[in-house]
Amino acid sequence: MATPPDPPASSVGRPSGADSRVPEWLRTSAAYAWRIIVVAIVVRAVFSVLGQFHRVAVAVFLGLVLTTVLRPVAGLLARKMPRPLAVASAVIGGIVVVFGGLALVGEIVAGQRRGLQREFVAGIGRIERQLEEPPFRLPANTFDDLQSRIGKLLSSHRSTIISEAVSGASRLLEVLTVIALALFCAVFFTHSGDRQWQWICDQLPRRARQHLMLAGRAAWRTFTGYTHGILLVAATNAFLVCIALLVLRVPLAVPLALLEFLAAFIPLIGSPIALAVAAVVALATKGPVTALIVVALIVIIGQIEGHLLHPIVMSWAVRLHPVVVALAVVGGAIAAGFIGAVVAVPFVAVLWSVHQALRGRADGSEAAGARPVVGSGPVPGRVLNDL
User: Fold this and answer.
1) pTM, whole model, 2 decimals?
2) What is the pLDDT of residues 310-359, one digit of tens each?
3) 3-state secondary structure at position 155
4) 3-state DSSP: the chain helix, strand, coil percent, rounded to 5?
5) Do 187 and 92 contact (CB within 8 A), yes or no?
6) What long-range pairs does 90-98 form, CB within 8 A, spacing at least 24?
7) Which of 225-234, 334-343, 371-380 is most confident?
């Protein structure tokens, strides 16, 4: 039986029938569109599942952050003592440092409470008198009416306030549970994270295992670099704010510096918000001139952070455009509130580094014209050791 002749080369790959009337650009767009829809559905499903277990996800994230800080310390101590004792010493030392700092802040606030109360009352009175003078010329009873309205509003919503306070207590219990779980995870990640990673890699086929090892190495390196970099940036910002507020004699300089340290973990917007709180305290206690100086401090520290600290400290770990950082922070805040704003930038940075690593490996394999050799990649158990 004779075989049919092969079709002409010019007709291979051409659409037939009704498809021939559809433009090529529209067929290509449709092919990309349905694939994007499938990916979006999968991503949405993943985030929906994580949303049901968001406390566990936050605890694991905090555990990884603590691991990036504790693991180098434990590694240094392990040179002089057994590994379990080194991990325990690093964890206990970290707890002592954190609670010692909180105790110092509490002592400062308690010691300045009475004087701060007098300064606030005097400052509010001074602001009222200034607003009654030109050019504002507010009526003298404006603030008295405002205080009475606030009192009536609080009285009418007393039950709501009590219920919010009770729910706040339950949320505090949830926060403490998440912190305890994060510390529990950090202990085991620090002690035996390499073996845990080895076990995860061993569950996959050898071909997929190699890609996972490469992605894990890139992800951990970027996440560690981001965490160490943001800690250094936050500490530098807090130090500058503390020195400036002490020079200006603004009350609560150390607690406000601690607030600046915590707010710096939200890039671009966290530091200005913390310094805005410091400006309000300066306005209420020292007057508008000191408040304007603190506002100028917002601009100065923002310039130092954006043009000096981030390019020098974090450029080697996180190579993201400022527009991408801003979009990630806003998108994370919309999706998951404060936690989303904190997690968004390292999440995007890790995804980008993994993409770059896998694409670089694929380009290198294609350029070599051969498949990657199984087992020639990095040792999976060393991924958490690359600090």
Assistant:
1) 0.71
2) 777 666 666 677 788 788 888 888 877 778 888 888 888 888 888 888 88
3) helix
4) 85, 0, 15
5) no
6) 90/190, 91/183, 91/186, 91/187, 91/190, 94/66, 94/69, 94/70
7) 225-234
- Please report, as a single letter, which amino acid is at residue 22: V
Question: CA-CA distance, 208 to 358, in Å (whole number)?
Answer: 12
Enter the tokens of residue 97: 């440092």
Residue matched to tokens 């010692």: 100
DSSP for 201-252 reads HHTS-HHHHHHHHHHHHHHHHHHHHHHHHHHHHHHHHHHHHHHHHHHTT-SS
Are 114 and 102 in contact, with CB atoms under 8 Å apart?
no
* Cβ atoms of 387 and 71 closer than 8 Å: yes
Residue 98: C-alpha distances to residues 51, 65, 189, 245, 248 (Å): 29, 15, 20, 22, 27
Handedness of CA 16, 21, 24, 27 (dihedral sign): negative
Q: At what angle do helices 206-247 and 270-286 cross, to 10 degrees?
A: 20
Locate tokens 């002089």: which residue?
Answer: 80
- Non-local CB neighbours of 28 within 8 Å, separated by 6+ positions: none
Q: Could you tell me which residues come within 8 angstroms of residue 183 by beta carbon, excluding any fewer than 6 positions away?
A: 63, 66, 91
